[in-house]
Amino acid sequence: MNKDYQSLIHSWMNENRVVGIELLQKLVRNRSIQTNEYEAQQVIINHLQKLDLEIDEWEVTGDIFTHPYFCSTRKSFLKSPNVVGVKRGIGKGKSIILNGHIDVVPEGDVTQWTDDPYSGKIEGGRMYGRGTTDMKGGTVSLLLAIQALKELGIQLNGDVIFQSVIEEESGGAGTLGTLLRGYKADAAIIPEPTNMKIFPRQQGSMWFRLTVKGRSAHGGTRYEGVSAIEKSMVVIQELQNLEKARNARIVDPLYENTPIPIPINLGVIKGGDWPSSVADEVIIEGRIGVAPDEEMRHAQEELRLCLKNLENIDRWFREKPVGLDWFGARWVPGTIDEDHPLMGILQSKFEQVKQTDPKIEASPWGTDGGLLEKLGGIPVIVFGPGTTEIAHFPNEYIELERMFEVAEIIALTLIEWCGVNR
Amino acid sequence: MNKDYQSLIHSWMNENRVVGIELLQKLVRNRSIQTNEYEAQQVIINHLQKLDLEIDEWEVTGDIFTHPYFCSTRKSFLKSPNVVGVKRGIGKGKSIILNGHIDVVPEGDVTQWTDDPYSGKIEGGRMYGRGTTDMKGGTVSLLLAIQALKELGIQLNGDVIFQSVIEEESGGAGTLGTLLRGYKADAAIIPEPTNMKIFPRQQGSMWFRLTVKGRSAHGGTRYEGVSAIEKSMVVIQELQNLEKARNARIVDPLYENTPIPIPINLGVIKGGDWPSSVADEVIIEGRIGVAPDEEMRHAQEELRLCLKNLENIDRWFREKPVGLDWFGARWVPGTIDEDHPLMGILQSKFEQVKQTDPKIEASPWGTDGGLLEKLGGIPVIVFGPGTTEIAHFPNEYIELERMFEVAEIIALTLIEWCGVNR
């Protein structure tokens, strides 16, 4: 039975390379950064219409702004719709959510790109452009899987709920909106760029901003001041120690190939405004990883205590404690039982298609999966084409073959998870 | 003889408090930051006219732009005149240059000022405002000294060359301009804010910009990148070691009360642009102090070698050497023989007026004195009212009494240095 479906779907994918490539190119050429998602969502809707799905397009609003899981700087989502397309099953099957985000991070410094960041140029089996890997490629895999089943006349028992959400890159208000609108399922797959590894665990993360104080003085008499730059070095060292301590506690074998399972990354530093003055303030911005089974609050408390402990290392911090501000984005961690049936199905379909065992790891970053699990009670697996290394960077690309392989694996997974009547 | 002059001048100063205060207030209320010096220079010229000086007002131009000592980002000094006023002696006396700069550094963050930064408000014996201490107060001391001699009918043998120059805060193009225009003298006094200490040595300094490279990665997999922020910590530590080594060589007793005679100050740091990305570049800007008897080139070479040596500490720097750029301002160091006659005269006049010994130290910062000495061959002493601690900072002020005391000491010094026929 499986063998038949596999060869059918494999052939369909081979015959529909152009469909997938054209769809991805259309999506990539729409610069769907935050607040600019509208046109790309219309591309999605146009495609969903061809697949005979029940389409739901709406702007997130209302109670969401006061929801405890809400995290966004936006005051309105006007013209930034969420899109859901439902393929109803014929009954008595398990349902599944297939979730992808339409928002992309900005292209950054254009001069670092070889081509236009939204070119969708194809070269050497790769398509280039912001969002190819994170994660319009994964979204196309989902749509190809659904389309293959439709065109091959394979009717599922359970419902397939395809979601194209906004705001994943900025705190998950889009996926939160789908939950508040009532979308639930027995499980979910999110094809974020895992490089085709299977992630039953998802790390959470939070952004923070530290304010390190000094005292100004003329650089020629710098001993009369206190350098916020020098004090920052003490702060950074303590954060490195905290990172070590937090990671030493991680014993999950899924992290055994990960050098630092839950990193503390310091991404931005800025301070001082004159070369020959002593800097009186340095701002450091970073992200702290949250273990899949850890409460966000616990990670916050550990960072707070680490900064508090600076007072025992350097008396200066008693006078001027380091300021701590949780700002910007936040991703809730998530986890699915490794024995969950969907895990077994996805692994076996991977083996069928790839003729090798899948790698099973824990994700080094957050996704909307944490929200689906923690708030919606929906078990989530993250599995998709594309790779983290090139997400968010210039010359982002995706290996097109991986996108079709993932589509094939997901189509086969849907057949087994949702069930079919032959 | 001295006793007579002293009481005459002391009385004149007492009777002319209002003259000095009004003049300083007028100067402070003109925001003479770089490129905006014109109006403040007109205040100077108006005052010089009352003193019957030969006035020379000109805009620096021509050969100066290619002069080896030229240091400025400006391409033109149009509407930024230098002003010199010469009081010719009646002959056979030694000449002197009295040099003050009219430019002030910008006021910075206005919210940190209690009053308008250009208020010239008087409270508790202090006048507040940008430029009061650095160094319009010192300039007023010079003008009061000249005015006292004139109004008391004291005719000097040697010439007094008063200079109100532009660009001291940005590399000395104004004073360089006076030298190129031919102004020379047997000695010079610059009343920068020494808190009435006598500085026969002047530290030089230069600004530098370091570019520390990293390699970007997602913060969740930060071990795949190289953090330019972490590498900066290595660089900063080596610069601290260089500062220690350079200062360990300073044996001049004039520095014995100075914790760090020639500091390396790191004043600005900025790097990275996203909290959850690994920073791929950090820029550090600072100043390196140059010892009074050191060649600028020697200090530059030591810094270059220090950065080169990073390659032996961390292999990363072989791949990505730290970039070094000498930019912005530069002050040439200077020194006068401690046995120079002007040193003796100034000390004895200080003792007469203050009834205590002056403190003799080496300056912790650069002035235009280095140019006068190195290029003009003119021995220079730096001695003035005001204090470094508040120069360049919010709520800059000057103790008005100190301004009048310095005026008195300089007037008496002129009488003895330039000579009088009774």
Question: Helices, strands, pairings?
Answer:
The structure is a homodimer of 422-residue chains.
Chain A lengths: L1 H14 L1 H12 L9 H13 L3 E5 L23 E6 L8 E6 L20 E2 L2 E3 L3 H20 L8 E6 L7 H8 L7 E3 L7 E5 L1 E10 L14 H21 L15 E8 L9 E10 L5 H18 L2 H4 L3 E9 L2 E2 L5 H14 L5 E4 L5 H6 L5 E3 L14 E3 H19 L4
Parallel strand pairs in A: 3-6, 3-7, 7-15, 8-14
Antiparallel strand pairs in A: 1-2, 2-6, 4-5, 5-16, 8-13, 9-11, 9-12, 10-11
Family (chains A, B): Belongs to the peptidase M20A family.
Keywords (chains A, B): Cobalt, Hydrolase, Metal-binding, Zinc
Cofactor (chains A, B): Zn(2+); Co(2+)
Q: Can you tell me about this structure?
A:
Chains A, B: This is Peptidase. In chain A, helix 2 (17-28) runs antiparallel to helix 4 (132-151). Chain A has helices at residues 2-15, 17-28, 38-50, 132-151, 173-180, 228-248, 296-313, 316-319, 341-354, 369-374, 400-418; strands at 54-58, 82-87, 96-101, 122-123, 126-128, 160-165, 188-190, 198-202, 204-213, 264-271, 281-290, 323-331, 334-335, 360-363, 380-382, 397-399. The longest helix of chain A has 21 residues, at 228-248. In chain A, strands 1-2-6-3-7-15 form a six-stranded mixed sheet, sandwiched between helices. The first copy, chain A, has a four-stranded antiparallel sheet with strand order 10-11-9-12. In chain A, strands 4-5-16 form a three-stranded antiparallel sheet. Chain A is an alpha/beta fold. The termini of chain A are close together. The model of chain A has no long low-confidence stretch (mean pLDDT 95). In chain A, a hairpin with a 2-residue loop joins strand 4 (122-123) and strand 5 (126-128). Chain A folds into two domains: 2-202 and 333-418, Zn peptidases (Aminopeptidase), CATH 3.40.630; 204-329, 2-Layer Sandwich (Alpha-Beta Plaits), CATH 3.30.70.360. Chains A and B meet through strand 9, helix 6, strand 10 and strand 11 of A and strand 9, helix 6, strand 10 and strand 11 of B.
